[in-house]
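Colleagues,

For the teaching module next term, I've prepared a clean inverse folding example: a structure given as tokens, and then the sequence designed for it. I'd like students to try predicting residues themselves before seeing the answer, so please don't circulate the second half yet.
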């Protein structure tokens, strides 16, 4: 099983490192928001943790920016006295705000929840990509059928049967046959 990468940005990132089991997570530590953003440009992380205080930028601003620009879930730890304000300001982004001092059990449950959400998000993305590809393939097949109907005055059913038979005869997909036929018909 591949370890999930977690980016922790805080002036003392080691304080948050023990929220993640070493067997499941690889933690990458940074002490500034700028360094964390540079890392996000070049590496893929499943979660970003921002701990209070950061050395170079407002924690709220950094969390909101990372959540919206990099489309990452952010776990933001703030002092208990500004928890409500931070939750209000981060309500529009995928920023989960928790109070300091850290309740380790609650933080671990939040991390487990975010793992589950990330898994569902990945599944939805792959389903969407598969559906987009299927739609593109259907468009190509439909275009080929239209060209066959126009060129040979066939019915749509006959054009569809022709493409299907060619695909079976050549042990390939209908979309590959359609692409070849389109090239030949347009040449």
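(Answer key — instructors only)
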């Amino acid at each position: 099983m591949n370890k999930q990468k977690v980016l922790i940005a805080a002036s003392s990132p080691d304080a948050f490192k023990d929220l993640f089991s070493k067997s499941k997570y690889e933690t990458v530590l940074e002490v500034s928001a700028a360094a964390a953003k540079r890392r996000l440009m070049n590496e893929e992380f499943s979660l970003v943790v921002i701990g209070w205080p950061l050395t170079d930028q407002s924690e709220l601003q950094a969390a909101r920016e990372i959540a919206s620009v990099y489309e990452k879930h952010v776990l933001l730890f703030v002092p208990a006295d500004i928890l409500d304000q931070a939750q209000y300001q981060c309500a529009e982004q995928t920023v989960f705000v928790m109070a300091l001092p850290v309740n380790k059990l609650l933080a671990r449950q939040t991390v487990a929840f975010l793992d589950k959400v990330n898994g569902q998000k990945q599944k939805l993305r792959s389903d969407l990509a598969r559906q987009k590809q299927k739609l593109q393939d259907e468009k190509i097949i439909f275009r080929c059928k239209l060209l066959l109907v126009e060129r040979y005055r066939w019915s749509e059913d006959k054009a569809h049967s022709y493409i299907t038979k060619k695909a079976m005869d050549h042990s390939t997909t209908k979309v590959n046959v359609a692409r070849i036929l389109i090239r030949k018909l347009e040449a």
